[in-house]
Amino acid sequence: MPRSGHWVGAGAQLPACPTLRSGCGGGTAPSMPRSGLWVCVGGTGPSMPRSGHGGGAQLPACPAPGSLSGPWALPWSGFLETVVDAPGGRGVTRLRQLGPAAMGGSASQLPRDLLGEYQELTFLTKQEILLAHKRFSELLSKEERESILQKRVPKSKILTLPELRANPFRDRICRVFSTSEDGDGSMSFEDFLDMLSVFSDSATSEIKSHYAFRIFDFDDDGTLDRKDLEKLVNCLTGEGDETRLSESEMDQLIQNILEESDIDKDGTINLSEFQHVISRSPDFASSFKIVL
């Protein structure tokens, strides 16, 4: 079977990436008592006073939860606080148990041997694969569904999924998991499965952190530099006048992140350094998820 994607599952090796893509974070000024920075994607979080950042300015609430199951928590020691579910946010939404009848005609459209192979190559269960097949097919016209495995869905349609449209990193997610040679962020069904596999409960922390790094590496150069970190923070706080950090706040925040994470002191965070930070967060793997 031709596989256009980079399979990540219990029965597959993590591929070598010639160019790793990296990430983002947040932090607090030294005068702050290490209370951390809310890093939320799937839940609404309270605004948090930053005593060291401009006389009581507040970090805005996280983006609307949409259908994401919970926040992504990035542990930059005192600078970022691991949040399993921000106060007032939505609880974890578990996968619905769907049998063939509930799946409509989706089960019959996916050959049994192919279903087994997808299960072997990803972290997904058969029911999760069938549900993914159903959701992906709904993005295609009736005529296109006849050859679903050969079709690509434009990024604009992928981002209509409620599980992605509220995510501030939605464009980066499409970029990382798309195998389109045009770089347009479109997805094949196998790209779609690959994405869901990484964000599933069963994926390992190592694999999740690998792909988190790639998502946060906005310029795809294999390191998280100051520009990447600034974009990451802006994604989390929003870029409106009321929520955007001042230049001095941003500089202080990024400096704190680098002091905490940049082990070799080269001014950037590489994959190993990022994974070292993630290893200190027991909640990262469970919070880095998207559930259909």
From TrEMBL:
Record Pfam families: EF-hand_7
Top-rank taxon, per record: Eukaryota
Coiled-coil ranges (or none): none
Entry-linked Gene3D superfamilies: EF-hand
Keyword Calcium assigned: yes
PROSITE patterns for this protein: EF_HAND_1 (PS00018), EF_HAND_2 (PS50222)
One Gene Ontology term of the molecular function aspect: calcium ion binding
Domain EF-hand: 182-202, 204-239, 249-284
InterPro entries: CIBP, EF-hand-dom_pair, EF_Hand_1_Ca_BS, EF_hand_dom
Keyword terms, alphabetized: Calcium, Magnesium, Metal-binding, Repeat
Record protein name field: EF-hand domain-containing protein
Organism whose genome encodes this protein: Gopherus agassizii (Agassiz's desert tortoise)
Organism taxonomic ancestry: Eukaryota, Metazoa, Chordata, Craniata, Vertebrata
